[in-house]
From TrEMBL:
Listed SMART domains: CoA_trans
SUPFAM superfamilies named among the record's database cross-references: NagB/RpiA/CoA transferase-like
Record lineage: Bacteria, Pseudomonadati, Pseudomonadota
MF term (GO), any: CoA-transferase activity
Residue intervals passing through the bilayer: none
Pfam families: CoA_trans
The name this protein goes by in its record: Succinyl-CoA--3-ketoacid-CoA transferase
Signal peptide: none
Keywords, alphabetical: Transferase
Family, per entry: Belongs to the 3-oxoacid CoA-transferase subunit A family.
Length: 233
């Protein structure tokens, strides 16, 4: 990388510095818009003891689910278990620590982390196990719990297009958690389908400004469908 040019040529370079025990925020929702090649590189590196923050943990054999196979994840912060049988097994056996978080709260924890806000109050979860042990305050006659924001050592993100300066555009529903994750990493790595030259992206179409991005890499993607539903003939 030189100057404003954020492009790297290998996945080894993209995730250089990732170590055991770090916190990784991963974009994606189900299997939509997941940084699948960056996840595969994490598996290849063999780093362990990771805390992974993501809406879910992929599926068996794909996405973040592959990191469960070699027990690389110590803790998951997510909204649901989804279609991942290994995630469910490790959760129920107690070998994987899981912090289940309401989806909107999780999104705001990441957004707040990226905005430099250390904590916020939300009514979601008050009076349930989600709120146990958390500070409670009353505003206008309603109870709220305090939630701390999240900042990752790394954020791994899937975009559609990026320029060499790290400005990123997402495509349709693949946007999901990705723009939030991109702001909340000490080191943010984005893999995209296409890299263009600065000035080729319409400024009004950019979702993530390059100031948040440290590294960009062009990848090829399987784009697996989690559940295919077709109309009966």
């Amino acid at each position: 990388m030189a100057g404003f040019d954020k492009v790297v040529s290998s996945y080894e370079e993209a995730l250089a510095g990732l170590q055991d025990g770090m916190t990784v925020i991963a974009g994606g929702f189900g299997l939509c818009g997941i940084p699948e090649n960056l996840i595969a590189q994490i598996k290849k590196m063999g780093v362990k003891g990771l805390t992974v923050v993501s809406n879910n943990c992929g599926v068996d054999g794909f996405g973040l689910g592959i990191l469960l196979e070699d027990r690389q994840i110590k803790k998951m912060v997510s909204s649901y278990v989804g279609e991942n049988a290994l995630f469910e097994k490790q959760l129920l056996s107690g070998e994987l620590e899981v912090e289940l978080t309401p989806q909107g709260t999780l999104a705001e924890k990441i957004r707040a982390g990226g905005a430099g806000i250390p904590a916020f109050y939300t009514a979601t979860g008050y009076g349930t196990p989600v709120g146990e042990g958390k500070e409670v305050r009353e505003f206008n006659g309603r109870h709220y719990i305090m939630e701390e924001s999240i900042v990752g050592d790394f954020a791994i993100v899937k975009g559609w297009k990026a320029d060499r300066y790290g400005n990123v555009v997402y495509r349709h529903t693949a946007q999901n958690f990705n723009p939030l994750a991109a702001t909340a990493g000490k080191i943010t790595v984005v893999e995209v389908e296409e890299i263009v030259e600065p000035g080729e992206l319409d400024p009004t179409h950019i979702h993530t400004p390059g100031i948040y991005v440290n590294r960009v890499i062009k990848g090829s993607f399987e784009k697996r469908i989690e559940q295919r539903t077709v109309r009966k003939g």
